[in-house]
Design brief:
By secondary structure, the protein is of the alpha+beta class. Helix content is 67%, strand content 9%. It folds into two domains: 208 residues, no CATH class; 157 residues, Histidine kinase-like ATPase, C-terminal domain (Heat Shock Protein 90, 2-Layer Sandwich).
Length: 491
């Protein structure tokens, strides 16, 4: 029996019954073994009555025979549960055993009624009340078992008082016993209802915990997928930046390589002329110097050869600087957190982005004093590159970009301000969203600022933008001096 379960919770009914039967067997283990000495004391109490009414001894023997298998069933509840998984079958096993014991005690009361003394009646009533009170707790999960055990035992006490020995206040005792029976009945029902509600609450809490654990697992899975997606977006933006850099670097390297090649071709011709001259000198040995033909302009060679070599060395030096700046920008050999000079990173990034800036963008520097900042240099350089390229692309024709730096407490800041066309207010709040872009189709991936935002947040910093339409945009990046190294799940 399960009381106190509302209609909206009927779906939990099977689980509540299962839990009630489990508790029934668990709670009854100790009272079951404590009942043995109580039964023995009752036997001793009624020894003189048993001598006059031997049938009572057979009832005691029957109760003992019931208690033995019942005790084994309670002790081996797990095995019984495997054999009979249906909770109502196990409850009926228990209820039948409880009923047999209750009926046995009731028979003892009735058989001993004509032979007991007043004191023995009082002891029988006390034992009945005690066992009923204990069973309220032990059999509370099953009202069926409790009532089948209590009513035959405690319910026969009024009959015992009525047909038993003469008592001065027989009616009062009967009323008190009846009130006691009603009280334990009401108490047992009330405790059963509260027990069902407690089990229902426990089941709901367990379900909530399980649901929460499942949600947490789903969130962890989503966080992992988000981290993978972020990594893919970062890699995608890196590839786009690399493509952009490759085009610019190819253009930058092509110029010095072109004139170095032209100079080397000219120098090759000059060398051939010099070798020809040496051949002529060898053939004309012994002949006067004036006899040697003047096949080439030695004065020109003396002037042009050093110039070609100087220009070629300068071109090779430019190529070397471009490669060095590119390597320093990407920090290919430095993938760990380290303390770096941000000003050096800014200058390196300017050099790498020279193809976007040269001839039309003026760089204005307002650098303050900065401490060394702990960060991932290649990621911060990528943020700076994205901001510089965006600033340059926002400027139609000629303009300038102002780079400012400063130090506030535990943070440093970098401002990139341009004189471009600015960003419309309705777009300003969305510029850090992935794939959002105001550029024409085919220009940019829409990931630059999103990736920059993620990088700065991962460093424990912030990035903000202010813009005035038609005047320009300013991006402010703040970074902690000591890197906080936040994971993707903490962004």
């Amino acid at each position: 029996m399960t009381l106190g379960i509302e209609s909206k919770d009927q779906r939990y009914l099977a689980r509540i019954k299962e839990a009630l039967v489990d508790e029934l067997y668990q709670r009854s283990a100790i009272p079951q073994f404590l009942f043995a000495p109580v039964l023995f004391l009752l036997y001793l109490l009624l020894q003189d009555v048993i001598a006059r009414r031997p049938a009572i001894a057979w009832v005691f023997a029957g109760i003992v025979l019931v208690l033995l298998p019942r005790s084994l069933a309670i002790l081996n509840h797990r095995r019984l549960r495997k054999r009979f998984p249906q909770p109502h079958i196990r409850e009926w096993f228990f209820a039948i055993g409880a009923a047999l014991v209750g009926v046995g005690l009731g028979l003892i009361n009735l058989l001993a009624a004509k032979f007991v003394s007043v004191e023995q009646v009082a002891m029988l009533a006390l034992i009945a009340a005690g066992t009923s009170s204990v069973n309220i707790v032990s059999m509370n999960p099953s009202l069926r078992s409790y009532f089948l055990s209590m009513l035959p035992n405690f319910g026969t006490i009024p009959i015992l008082i009525w047909i038993g020995p003469e008592m001065v206040h027989r009616n009062i005792y009967m009323v008190l016993v009846i009130i006691n029976v009603m009280a334990v009945t009401i108490m047992a029902t009330y405790m059963h209802i509260n027990g069902c509600k407690a089990i229902l609450l426990r089941i709901k809490v367990d379900d909530a915990k399980q649901s929460l654990a499942q949600r947490n697992q789903e969130l962890e899975s989503l966080n992992e997928r988000l981290a993978d997606t972020q990594s893919q977006l970062l890699q995608s933006e890196k590839m786009a930046s690399i493509g952009q850099l490759a085009a610019g670097v190819a253009h930058e390297i092509n110029n010095p390589i072109a004139f170095v090649r032209a100079n080397l071709h000219s120098l090759d011709g000059y060398a051939k002329d010099i070798l020809s001259a040496l051949d002529i000198v060898d053939r004309t040995q012994g002949v006067g110097r004036d006899a040697a033909p003047q096949a080439f302009d030695t004065a020109f060679l003396r002037e042009d050869i050093p110039a070609l070599l100087t220009e070629s060395i300068e071109g090779v030096t430019r190529v070397e600087k471009i490669v060095k700046d590119l390597r320093e920008f990407s920090h290919l050999d430095e993938s760990d957190w380290q303390k770096v000079d941000l000003h050096r990173g800014i200058e390196t990034t300017i050099s790498v982005a020279a193809h976007e800036l040269r001839y039309r963008i003026e760089i204005i520097r307002h650098y303050g004093e900065l401490p060394l900042v702990e960060c991932l240099p290649f990621q911060i350089n990528q943020v700076l590159l994205n901001l510089l390229v965006n600033a340059a692309q926002s400027i139609a024709g000629h303009g300038h970009i102002t780079l400012s730096t400063g130090h506030d407490g535990d943070d440093v800041w970098i401002k990139v301000a341009d004189t471009g066309k600015g960003i419309e207010p309705q777009h300003l709040k969305r510029i850090f969203e992935p794939f959002f872009t105001t550029k024409p189709v085919g220009i940019g991936t829409g990931l630059g600022l999103s990736v920059s935002y993620s990088i700065v947040r991962r460093h424990g910093g912030s990035i903000e933008a202010t813009s005035v339409l038609g005047e320009g945009t300013t991006f402010t990046v703040r970074l902690p001096v000591v890197g906080q190294r936040l994971g993707s799940g903490e962004l």
